[in-house]
Amino acid sequence: MSIFREKGTFTRRQFFKGSGMLAATIVISGVFAKFGYDAWAASDAYIEKRISGLYTLDEKMAIRKSHQNPEILQIYKDFLSPGEVKPVSEKAHHLLHTKYGQDIPELIKELHAHQHDAA
Amino acid sequence: MSEVRGKVLKHGEQTRTMHWVHLVAFIILALTGIGFYFNIGFINNMFGGGANASMVHRWAGVVFVVGPALYILLNFERFARFVDTITTITKDDIGWLKTMGGYIPFLKGEVPPQDKYNAGQKMLGLIIIIGCLLLILTGFPMWLWRAVVPPAFLAFCYSVHFWVAAILILAVCGHFFLAAIHPKSRVEFASMMIDGYIDAEISAHHNEKWFNTLEEVKE
């Protein structure tokens, strides 16, 4: 039986067209990749600056820990746990611990019930 | 029709392998893409839910890129010949488009002799190359750079990706119909999907210009 095959010839025109298509694809993909890399790098640089800014602000603060804040300590001594500093006192628990989601209606009821106490 | 006996090796082993890999990747990409874009439960569930379908889509996209890239690197000559064929538009191709190769009953006229690929296949080849490039260029930013590129650019990528995918899915459906179902052209099915060979008589009729350039080997 006869079998027909393509000849092994490879013309200059075929080479240039194939190379051109490949080169165009590589260039377009490269430009896109560069755009993405630059966007990524710019985002990273921004995040680094933001982190650095937050740390710098924090370092400049006179009082950096809430449990060492004299005003907070005074509030505990005068009101939340009279005569002492007791962070989880019952009053502190009720007034400072927040609630969320389906517990909110219950919290509103509780606040209404105690509104005269606070006054 | 000329009386020619024998077989023509139309597509080599690596070409057929690349075609299979690209086809399977495309089907997975199309299914997962449609599944999670339109939130179609039964398609997503085939891939383990919407989130998994999205992950399968991304990695199938990698196969979709790597398959042809490897083929081009290992078979540059074949790729260059293919590019040369589909970008060479002659009067015969225009003639084929005027009669649509005789596939449409009310378009009468003589179909001119064709290259290895007829004018319709050339158009499809160009649509697939440009379409795939657009899908790749918009797909990877949507995956890898979604947190760092401007939202307007990301929205542009989504729109281009969606519409190019829609056009390619329709084009591939048409390609499947002509290559596997239409009685006039399904004779070529085995040459790409199975053993690479096609009857010489059919090839001499459908791809006369290309057939005349082949060399005959007795076996």
UniProtKB/TrEMBL annotation, chain A:
One of its GO terms (molecular function) is ferredoxin hydrogenase activity. Coiled coil: none annotated. Pfam families: Fe_hyd_SSU. Residues 41-104 form the Iron hydrogenase small subunit domain. InterPro entries: Fe_hydrogenase_HydB, Fe_hydrogenase_ssu, Fe_hydrogenase_ssu_sf, TAT_signal. GO terms for cellular component: periplasmic space. This is Iron hydrogenase, small subunit. It comes from Syntrophomonas zehnderi OL-4.
UniProtKB/TrEMBL annotation, chain B:
The chain crosses the membrane at residues 20-43, 55-74, 123-145, 151-178. One of its GO terms (cellular component) is formate dehydrogenase complex. GO terms for molecular function: electron transfer activity; formate dehydrogenase (quinone) activity. It is a multi-pass membrane protein. It is found in: Cell membrane. One of its GO terms (biological process) is respiratory electron transport chain. Signal peptide: none annotated. Pfam families: Ni_hydr_CYTB (PF01292). It comes from the Bacteria. Residues 13-192 form the Cytochrome b561 bacterial/Ni-hydrogenase domain. InterPro entries: Cyt_b561_bac/Ni-Hgenase (IPR011577), Di-haem_cyt_TM (IPR016174), FDH_cytochrome_b556_subunit (IPR051817). Coiled coil: none annotated. This is Di-haem cytochrome, transmembrane. It comes from Syntrophomonas zehnderi OL-4. The lineage of its organism: Bacteria, Bacillati, Bacillota, Clostridia, Eubacteriales.
